[in-house]
Design a protein that fits this description.
Radius of gyration: 15 Å
Largest sheet: 6 strands, mixed
Helix content: under 10%
Structural class: mainly beta
Number of helices: 2
Distance between the termini: 37 Å
Strand order of the largest sheet: 8-1-2-11-10-9
Length: 149
């Protein structure tokens, strides 16, 4: 069976998410700051009448921060029936991968908590970390973000 994944970059590392989890991918836009939210929440945007909280994925994963540029994208997914956007450096491609190229994640990968990592995709000579963006947030963080909408 083939799986479709969306590949994106954070710094020089490749990550992916299952395409079925992605509602849409949009260009970076002006984000309205919101007071008293977790430091990794950049703020909110209005997308066609829906208020969407925006999370800087590099801040959340405690990766080195860089400036946003023309390649910066926001990947929008649903968490608990709410749309949430995640800022990534770039979205590079959509791949079809076989089930046998998806491996269980080793115990420690690049300092990122294993609880966020769904699997590792081996494709050509690349290893791509498959993130579970729903697990990136704790239950209390999910509640805080829901209150923003």
């Amino acid at each position: 069976m083939l799986n479709q994944i969306v590949i994106f970059k954070l710094n020089d590392e490749e990550f992916c998410v299952d395409i079925m989890d992605v509602l849409e991918i949009i260009r970076m836009q002006t984000i309205t700051k919101v007071p008293d939210v977790p430091s990794f929440v950049e703020g909110i945007i209005n997308l066609r009448g829906t208020v969407i909280p925006i999370i800087d994925l590099k801040k959340r994963l405690k990766l080195k921060l860089t400036n946003y540029d023309d390649d910066t994208r926001i990947i929008i997914i649903k968490i608990n029936e709410k749309s949430v956007g995640f800022i990534v450096d770039s979205v590079t491609e959509v791949l079809h991968v076989e089930n046998d190229s998806i491996k269980e994640a080793p115990d420690i990968i690049a300092g990122i908590g294993k609880e966020y990592i769904e699997s590792v995709v081996s494709y050509d000579d690349r290893l791509i970390i498959n993130l579970d963006l729903e697990k990136i947030l704790t239950e209390s963080e999910k509640r805080e973000i829901e209150e923003m909408q």
